[in-house]
Design a protein that fits this description.
586 residues; Immunoglobulin-like; 12 helices; 28% strand; elongated
Amino acid sequence: MRQGRRIPQFVMIMTLGAAGLGGQTPPPTPAPATAVAGTPAPEMSTRDTPATFSTRVNLVMVPVVVRDGKGHAIGTLRQEDFQLLDKGKPQVITKFSVEKPGMPAIAAEVATDEKALPSVPPEKPAPAIPQRFVAYLVDDMHLAVGDLLQVRAAAKKHLGELEETTRAALFTTSGRGNLEFTDDRDKLLRAVDALQPWTSAASTVDDCPDVSYYQVDLIRNQNDTSALSVATSEAMVCLNLDPTQPASQQIAQAAANAAAGRAQSVGDQETHVSLTVLKDIVRRLAAAPGSRSLVLLSPGFYLTIDHRFDETELMDRAIRANVTISSVGARGVYNPDPIVDASQRVSTINGGLAKRQFAIQSAQANEDILAELADATGGTFFHNNNDLAAGLKQVAAQPEFVYVLGFSPQNLKYDGGFHSLKVVVKIPRGLELQARRGYYAPKHVIDPEQQAKEEVREALFSRDEMNDIPVNLNMQFFKSSAANARLTVIARVDLKQLRFRKAEDRNLNTLTIVAAVFDRNGNFMTGLQKVVDMKLKDQTLANLPTTGISIRNIFDLTPGTYAVRLVVRDAEGQAMAARNGTVQIP
């Protein structure tokens, strides 16, 4: 067995508070000036402004799972143990990390009650915040009725066995019956029971001839004359044309081309919707404060060359957001129709054989997307097996270690061309590698503002621990009534560890502090951002307190269980820190 996304439009929660997290690049920090003639500029001021992180232009990320002879993932390799080749040319690995998807990200600080005495322990233990988020995408647009019934049965069994700290969501490619992340198992099971096969207007039409999207690609994009010949032969039969008449061949071929045009329109739309849904779910998962997985249950769907850049963008987005995509081939063991059935609408036995062969090739080509997404993101591809419950159990088991290699291609041409990738482990020998197969070059220069916006989102919603800046997180809540509470999030930053830029008699730097609150199911609730502009005199910088400075963010909440994420970044050193917290307001 080989190892190895219509959803409603998500209200993007990345814009935090009134200030937001836009991607605009703020103007350079000006040299010290006077606010009023003869009045020195303040040494420190706080303002609201968009945050911008350094962008990683053309950085290609390559997740790699390395297993020993017994199939166990190993995590003891170092950067120098890997070699990465782009189109056969060795690349310099500029980013290297070892992810542990099953491990908690950061030990969380616990909020205290302002009214409680310091010596009095809390009445309840700290709440266990969600550790893992799994989004299940059922491809009801492409699943046959019988296969969907099998998916429902397997999903109900699997979802009933999830761990307490796992939050699950259920989405469909048609957008019907979506359920956001929840720990309510009954809601999940009811959502699974409500799954129904998708019936589009095009699927209710008995087209003549019946041309698959794969066959269309052969006809329109690959100039395969045999594919057009089979479609023409089928049209001859379904239109009841007399093959002895001279005009019949021309009529049949025109019908074949017309059917190919209709199939291309439907196929393009369905593939576009499927990829868009997958991107939206990855974007949603990127906002989940924990381990992130996407499980795609689908027979697969076909990608023409026009969709490959979108696929690469999907892979890149998932990799940057630490989202592992696994897939279950929901068709199970594929059995094509017998030759006698396949040949009923074609004029010759050879035409029937060719029609059957196209069906087999189409089924195989449709599964390519399932394998490619799993390989690219460190996931698992389960296929050619009717035990879908076992498949869900297998893909839900994350590898213990995932290496992430990053490199910046030199002299990259913006031509949309495919770049094959190969990862080699120098030593030891005899290891099995699962790695991204390749990527498509962008067709244009990446917009730095949009890239910066994505980087900001990643920083706040990342599960990675960041300790480049010494930061302490303290939280206190106060209940003003039975239904209202105030949460104070305090970030204490040691400025002495920061890098400052000298300008005349001042030392310049800018701190961006972002705090966000999530509910018990990892859904974003609210967030605030503050920017501290520092223009410190030499004496002030030398006499900074060892305790650092404190920046407060205040949130109005109702009683409940929450998770807090704090991110701090400085402009000059481009260093970052991140902390997690939990809040339980009775």
